[in-house]
Structure formats: C-alpha cells, structure tokens
C-alpha cells in the first residue's frame, strides 16, 4: 500500500509543478499585451498632438488686402489689437466710442488704419458704421469682425439692481454685439471671413450678480449658433474667453466706486439686511482677488484674436489666462453644490444672513 501511495505521489507531482508555470506564462502574456496596448495608445496620442499642432500652426500669409473691423478700440484689448494688426499689415477699421480714443489710436498707428465713431447701443450709429465699412471693403467683402466693445458696470448683489441696470449692460455687451454682427454678415460671407466675439470666462461660470455674466453667457450662445449657421458659407466664428487681465473693466477702483454708488441709492431696509459695514468688508476682498489674479500682459489675448483671424483652422474657443484655464474652467465643470460651497466661502455674508 505504501508503494502504491508513493507511486501515485510521483505521478501527481509533475502535474502540480506545471500549474505555476502555466499561471506565470498567462500573466506574462497579459502583461505583454497590456504593454503593447499602452505603447500603441501612446503613439496614437503623440500622433494626434503633432497633427493638432501642425493644423493649428497653419496660417494665411497675404493680409495686406484684408480689412478687419474692430469695435471698442478706445482702450484695452481693442486699442492694443488695432495697433498690432496695423503693424502686421491689415487694413484696420477701428471703431471708437469717443473722439479722444480715436485720436489717441491715430497717433500710435500708420495712415493705413482708419477710425470712426460707433455707439453699439444706437441702431443709427451701427447703420452709419456699416455704410462706412462697405465703402472701404467694396466688392472684396470684410475679412474680419472683432466684437470687442463692452462694459462691466453696474454689477453687485441682485437685489441692489433695477431692471434698467440690467438693460444698460445687456444693450452694450449682447444686443449691440448681435446688431453689429448682423449688419456685417453679408460682407463677411462675401469674403468667407472671420467673426471673433469677445466673451469672458464668466460666460462659463457666473460669479456675481448683475448682467455682466448674463451677457457673456448670451455671447457664448450666440457664438455657437452663429458658428453653425455660417459654417456652410465658409465663415469661421470664434469666441475669446479671457480670465482676469488688467484693463479698465477689471479695475478694482472702478468696481468699488460702482458698488458705493449702488449702495447710496438702496432703500434703508436693504442696507439693514446687509449691514453698515458690508462694503468695508467686501471692497478690500474684491480688490485683493482682482490684484492677485489679474495678468498685466494684454498681448496674450491679442495674440489669440490674431490667431483666430489668421489661422487656416481657427479654434472655436480660446480660453486665455492662467486663472481661466486652471481655476474657472475646471470649476465650471464641478457639481453645482461644490461650486456654490466654494464660492460662498469667498463671499462676505450679509448681517441678516440665515445660513
């Protein structure tokens, strides 16, 4: 019996020894397959990045016969963009709200650049500007329209504002932008040109009350529908989404002055809801946030607009600024409850807040 047991043990032992070898071989094959898949995916990803870079870098070269119509050229991005495109050789048609702004721009540019007055809230002014542009571009059509004109005031808590406060800002930032665009579409279709709309990162996430964020959300929506509607005519439409930059719109002193003005006209009961020291707490915090985030290099935005006007394949959206890419856009994709919690931690609570 012992001999039989010994013999059976000798018979079974080799089979048992084969099992680990089979397992090791299976694991090795799986690891090899996973490694091959990772290499394949890496190569494909590298190819996609290189193709995107090549496609994104292709630009038109002949610009001397191309007209670009820019609104809001008195200061800020529009003022700097007009100078930049003039140096690049474009035929720049710069619309300014004030005579002073127009003269300052003329003093810094060549005789090729032309300025004219424009009030984007006035249909007659928009019509006159359209006739002037038409007389300049003639049969060639308009290569580029940059809707840059905009204002940021008044902004503040929603219950500080009237319907007229909302209308003032919407008339400039949204309705005026749409009306200027509609007046130029026939000329842009003729040239198979570009439309570049100045939105904001606050067209992705609403940070404060008033119609500034509302207007930028509206610009984003108009931009999307316009891009799809005009694509079949060879027209490219792009949207610029800057974060905080050091311009007149984001000047903390201007913002605080606007808040003080709104506070002065509030009914007594609303002031009591917020407390007499509300502005004393809010204004320094708002100023610190702007000074911390605002970038001084406005050319970052100008270069993105230039790319939208000259790239063979312009992007649909250009988020510009470190805060836009690393803070506001990621935050806009977060769950609403998380975003509300995070933003409320940075706000000043009214005196009679209940939560």
Mean pLDDT: 90
Q: Note the beta-strand portion.
A: 5-15%
Succession of helices and strands = HEHEHEHEHEHEHHHHEHH
Count every helix, treating DSSP H or I runs of 4 or more residues as helices: 12
**Between the first and last Cα atoms, what is the distance in angstroms?**
85 Å
Oligomer: single chain
Shape: flat
Describe how the helices and strands are arranged.
Layout: H1 2-57, E1 67-70, H2 76-88, E2 91-96, H3 99-108, E3 114-117, H4 123-137, E4 144-147, H5 163-191, E5 194-198, H6 212-230, E6 236-242, H7 252-264, H8 268-274, H9 278-293, H10 299-310, E7 317-320, H11 322-332, H12 336-346
Parallel strand pairs: 1-2, 1-4, 2-3, 4-5, 5-6, 6-7
Helix pairs in contact: 2-10, 4-5, 5-6, 7-9
What would your notes on this structure say?
There is one protein chain. The protein has 355 residues and is α/β, with parallel strands linked by helices. Helix content is 60%, strand content 10%. It is built from twelve helices and seven strands. The protein has helices at 2-57, 76-88, 99-108, 123-137, 163-191, 212-230, 252-264, 268-274, 278-293, 299-310, 322-332, 336-346, and strands spanning 67-70, 91-96, 114-117, 144-147, 194-198, 236-242, 317-320. It has a seven-stranded parallel sheet, with helices on both faces. Strand 5, helix 6 and strand 6 (236-242) form a beta-alpha-beta unit. Helix 2 crosses helix 10 (299-310), helix 4 packs parallel to helix 5 (163-191) and helix 7 packs antiparallel against helix 9. The protein is flat, with a radius of gyration of 30 Å. The model is unreliable at 1-13 (pLDDT under 50).
């Amino acid at each position: 019996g012992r001999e039989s047991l010994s013999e059976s043990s000798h018979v079974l032992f080799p089979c048992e020894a084969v099992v680990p070898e089979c397992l090791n071989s299976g694991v090795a094959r799986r690891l090899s397959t996973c490694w091959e898949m990772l290499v394949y995916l890496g190569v494909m990803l590298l190819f996609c990045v290189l193709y995107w870079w090549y496609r994104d870098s292709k630009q038109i070269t002949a610009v001397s016969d191309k007209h670009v119509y820019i609104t809001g050229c008195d200061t800020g991005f529009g003022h700097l963009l007009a100078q930049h495109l003039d140096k690049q050789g474009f035929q720049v048609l710069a619309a300014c709200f004030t005579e002073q702004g127009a003269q300052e721009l003329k003093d810094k540019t060549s005789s090729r650049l032309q300025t004219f007055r424009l009030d984007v809230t006035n249909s007659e002014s928009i019509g006159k500007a359209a006739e002037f542009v038409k007389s300049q571009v003639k049969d060639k059509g308009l290569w580029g329209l940059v809707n840059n004109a905009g204002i940021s005031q008044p902004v503040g808590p929603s219950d500080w504002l009237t319907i007229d406060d909302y209308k003032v800002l919407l008339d400039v930032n949204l309705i005026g932008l749409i009306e200027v665009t509609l007046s130029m579409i026939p000329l842009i279709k003729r040239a198979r040109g570009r439309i570049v709309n100045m939105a904001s990162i606050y067209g992705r996430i609403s940070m404060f009350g008033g119609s500034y964020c509302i207007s930028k959300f509206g610009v984003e929506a108009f931009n999307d529908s316009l891009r799809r509607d005009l694509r079949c005519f060879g027209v490219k439409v792009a949207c610029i989404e800057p974060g905080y930059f050091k311009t007149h719109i984001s000047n903390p002193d201007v913002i605080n002055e606007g808040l003080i003005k709104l506070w002065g006209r509030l009914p007594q009961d609303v002031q009591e809801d917020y407390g007499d020291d509300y502005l004393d707490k809010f204004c320094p915090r708002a100023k610190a946030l702007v000074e911390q985030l605002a970038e001084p290099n406005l050319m970052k935005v100008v270069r993105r607009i230039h790319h939208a006007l000259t790239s063979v394949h312009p992007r649909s959206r250009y988020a510009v600024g470190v805060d836009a890419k690393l803070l506001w856009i990621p935050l806009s994709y977060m769950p609403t409850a998380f975003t509300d919690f995070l933003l409320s931690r940075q706000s000043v609570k009214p005196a009679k807040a209940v939560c």
